[in-house]
């Protein structure tokens, strides 16, 4: 008897069949993509206003000219994104812990947190930016910075903290009660159980949803331009003023895509590697 294993003819036939199916699927997908791309180009180029639109939106000379200024504005967007993201994650986790506590003495805190989350999840982020950006300076508080960057970042933090708090709350509630009971049986206090048992499991469960919200925050950081902050979008608006050439907007979109597309692919790769474990239950009730 030979000591070498060899697949059977049926196994080899299955492998060959799957290979043919993958090749056929690839060719069909490639052909359909080419057909759609050709049709899109034909419709776009054949439109009556294509020449004017090409000059107004896809001017290569204008693109190169405005790219440095727009890239400098994007640096502000990235700083706002990082700062707001860190604060929103930490604040959202703390609010979620406060909302899920069952201590009777902390009912007023739970009520305040619930109202905060309901309000800032229900109001559009653009409206929050306008209210914060124009409302807080009207109070004339001497200790409050009133720069457009600070107020814009504050508005984004207020909104995304509420979103992330609900995501973390869903993750905390997805932890099985037996985990808490086992921790208490081992002698852990309520606070130790929350910190060492509940929160780590909750964070792992909601990581895919959390990462998606962080990617969305990166795009929403461009909304601070409505308050006058010179970010990528505002720099594009300045470049468009007077020339009526909108290529600067295309340049700003291109730079945002350079950041968001790789981030999205990394999040997708992470989710595929995890296989979505634990994220289904944690997302219940946390949808934006």
Automatic annotation (TrEMBL):
UniProt subcellular location: Cell membrane
Transmembrane region(s): 26-45, 78-98, 119-137, 143-165, 246-267
Pfam families: BPD_transp_1 (PF00528)
InterPro entries given in the database record: AA_ABC_transptr_permease_3TM, ArtM/GltK/GlnP/TcyL/YhdX-like, MetI-like, MetI-like_sf
Topology of the protein relative to the lipid bilayer: Multi-pass membrane protein
SUPFAM superfamilies, per the entry: MetI-like
Gene3D superfamilies for this protein: MetI-like
Keywords, in A-Z order: Amino-acid transport, Cell membrane, Membrane, Transmembrane, Transmembrane helix, Transport
ABC transmembrane type-1 domain boundaries: 74-267
CDD domains: TM_PBP2
Principal place of residence: membrane
Family according to the record: Belongs to the binding-protein-dependent transport system permease family. HisMQ subfamily.
PANTHER family: GLUTAMINE TRANSPORT SYSTEM PERMEASE PROTEIN GLNP (PTHR30614:SF20), MEMBRANE COMPONENT OF AMINO ACID ABC TRANSPORTER (PTHR30614)
NCBIfam families named in the record: HEQRo_perm_3TM
Record's protein name: ABC transporter permease subunit
Lineage, highest ranks first: Bacteria, Bacillati, Actinomycetota, Actinomycetes, Micrococcales
């Amino acid at each position: 008897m030979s000591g070498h294993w060899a697949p059977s003819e049926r196994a080899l036939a299955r492998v060959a069949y799957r290979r043919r199916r993958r090749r056929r699927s690839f060719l069909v997908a490639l052909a359909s993509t080419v057909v759609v791309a050709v049709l899109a180009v034909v419709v776009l180029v054949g439109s009556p206003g294509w020449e004017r639109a090409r000059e107004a939106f896809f001017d290569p000379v204008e693109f190169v000219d405005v790219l440095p200024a727009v890239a400098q504005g994007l640096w502000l967007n990235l700083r706002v994104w990082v700062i707001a993201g860190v604060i929103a994650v930490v604040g959202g986790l703390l609010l979620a812990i406060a909302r899920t506590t069952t201590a009777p003495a902390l009912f007023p805190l739970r009520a305040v947190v619930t109202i905060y989350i309901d309000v800032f999840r229900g109001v559009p982020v653009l409206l929050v930016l306008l209210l914060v950006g124009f409302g807080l300076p009207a109070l004339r508080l001497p200790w409050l910075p009133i720069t457009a960057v600070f107020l814009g970042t504050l508005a984004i933090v207020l909104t995304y903290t509420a979103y992330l708090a609900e995501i973390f709350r869903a993750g905390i509630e997805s932890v099985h009660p037996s985990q808490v009971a086992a921790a208490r049986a081992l002698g852990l206090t309520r606070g130790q159980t929350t910190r060492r048992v509940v929160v780590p499991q909750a964070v792992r469960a909601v990581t895919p949803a959390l990462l998606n919200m962080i990617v969305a925050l990166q795009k929403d950081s461009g909304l601070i331009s409505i308050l006058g902050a010179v970010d990528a979008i505002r720099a594009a608006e300045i470049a468009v003023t007077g020339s009526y050439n909108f290529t600067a907007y295309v340049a700003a979109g291109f730079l945002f895509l350079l950041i968001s597309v790789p981030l999205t692919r990394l999040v997708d790769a992470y989710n595929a590697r995890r296989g979505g474990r634990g994220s289904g239950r944690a997302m219940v009730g946390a949808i934006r």
